[in-house]
């Protein structure tokens, strides 16, 4: 169950607004128009979610049977409109459809469910068997994917900069992980706690991909959104946990702005205080822990991060240092004070310049 009685849903998208803003000023009319449309749609969704939080009006929890340890997936088709959820096109246990986008969304929901259940004993994102809903073919040339506090939504991309957003299973895992955070630590979506919120989603999104592929930490690419960028873009992904700041360097997109260390922390009012930018710092710390320990990253590094996220001690307004201290304590509690795990965690945070002593 949630550590919080009243989680606050927020609108969380995989492509940050600062990147879309850059695209909206492209000299290419097709690129600019698609980005502007996406920005407007995202702003409308963000404002709707903000009003829901301010008024305290929340949708009634869905009726569902007792937790069963099995996913309950439903995929809808928005048919290039914005009304949610859209037309139901595939339910749990149904045969694959002729639409590859629908099938990828269905599979990605399952991969995320399986990681959290098998690795951490968590039954769906709320821990109590919450049904997993996703809508595909959202809007026209929509260049994003998001979690709106209740479900996943995927755009088809504009074909100029972004491809279909169901192509990357880590994107699906990333957005659903926002739901896990919503039902647990409920990290505030601004500044350092917001960057931690984004980082948690990158961490578990990457772990979903690694788990689905059976990869070890050394085999993983540690990229978020690999395969989403079109061939005309000079870049490999939206973000890199291995080397923040190197995911793309493109005339239209600009250069990846993520820092890897606190010395390069970006103070900005944009993007809710740089939540997608400064997440590179805790992202890189996790990468360092996972590769130092080796093996499957979800088993030890992921377990430590999961323990902190769900343990009830992580405050909604926690900064990087508070989170770092909790990861050290969690490593010691689960694996022992003198173990490799605690040493790897301490070294990783030291490398990225985040203190672990209060």
Description:
The structure is a single chain. This protein is an alpha+beta fold and 358 residues long. 42% of the residues lie in helices and 9% in strands. Helix 3 crosses helix 4, helix 3 crosses helix 5 and helix 4 crosses helix 5. The strands form three sheets. The protein has a six-stranded mixed beta sheet with strand order 1-5-6-4-2-3, with helices on one face. Strands 7-8 form a two-stranded antiparallel sheet. The radius of gyration is 19 Å and the shape is globular. The chain contains ten helices and ten strands.
Biggest sheet overview: 6 strands, mixed
CA-based gyration radius: 19 Å
What percentage of the residues does DSSP assign to strands (E)?
5-15%
- Strand arrangement across the biggest beta sheet: 1-5-6-4-2-3
Discrete helix count:
10
Summary keywords:
358 residues; alpha+beta; six-stranded mixed β-sheet; two-stranded antiparallel ribbon; 10 helices; globular; disordered N terminus
Question: Topology, please?
Answer:
Elements (H helix, E strand, L loop, with lengths): L11 E2 L3 H8 L4 H27 L17 E5 L9 E5 L8 H21 L11 E5 L8 E3 L4 E3 L14 H15 L7 H23 L9 E2 L14 E2 L8 E2 L3 E2 L14 H5 L5 H14 L7 H10 L9 H16 L4 H13 L6
Parallel strand pairs: 2-4, 4-6
Antiparallel strand pairs: 1-5, 2-3, 5-6, 7-8, 9-10
Helix pairs in contact: 1-2, 3-4, 3-5, 4-5, 5-7, 7-10, 8-9, 9-10
């Amino acid at each position: 169950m949630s550590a919080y009685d009243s989680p606050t849903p927020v609108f969380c998208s995989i492509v940050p607004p600062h990147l879309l803003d850059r695209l909206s000023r492209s000299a290419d009319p097709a690129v600019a128009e698609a980005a502007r449309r996406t920005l407007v749609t995202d702003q409308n969704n963000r404002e709707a979610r903000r009003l829901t939080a301010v008024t305290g009006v929340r949708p009634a929890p869905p009726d569902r049977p007792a937790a069963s340890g099995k996913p309950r997936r439903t995929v809808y088709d928005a048919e290039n409109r914005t009304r949610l959820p859209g037309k139901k096109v595939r339910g749990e246990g149904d045969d694959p459809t002729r639409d590859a986008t629908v099938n990828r969304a269905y599979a990605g929901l399952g991969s995320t469910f399986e990681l959290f259940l098998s690795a951490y004993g968590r039954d769906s994102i709320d821990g109590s068997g919450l049904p997993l809903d996703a809508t595909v073919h959202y809007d026209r040339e929509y260049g994003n994917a998001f979690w709106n506090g209740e479900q996943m939504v995927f755009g088809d991309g504009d074909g100029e900069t972004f491809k279909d957003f169901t192509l990357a299973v880590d994107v699906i895992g990333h957005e659903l992980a926002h739901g896990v955070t919503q039902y647990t630590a409920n990290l505030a979506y601004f500044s350092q706690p917001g960057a931690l919120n984004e980082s948690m989603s990158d961490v578990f999104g990457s772990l979903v991909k690694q788990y689905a592929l059976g990869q070890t930490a050394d085999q993983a690419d540690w990229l978020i959104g690999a395969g989403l960028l079109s061939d005309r873009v000079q870049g490999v992904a939206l973000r890199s946990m291995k080397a923040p700041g190197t995911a793309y360097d493109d005339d239209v997109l600009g250069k990846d702005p993520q820092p890897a260390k606190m010395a390069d922390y970006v103070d900005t009012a944009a993007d809710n205080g740089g939540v997608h930018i400064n997440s590179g710092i805790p992202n890189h710390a996790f990468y360092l822990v996972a590769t130092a320990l080796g093996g499957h990253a979800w088993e030890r590094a992921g377990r430590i991060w999961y323990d902190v996220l769900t343990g009830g001690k992580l405050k909604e307004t926690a900064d990087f240092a508070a989170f770092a201290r909790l990861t050290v304590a969690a490593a010691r509690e689960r694996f022992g004070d003198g173990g490799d795990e605690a040493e790897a965690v301490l070294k990783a945070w030291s490398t990225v310049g985040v203190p672990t002593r209060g």
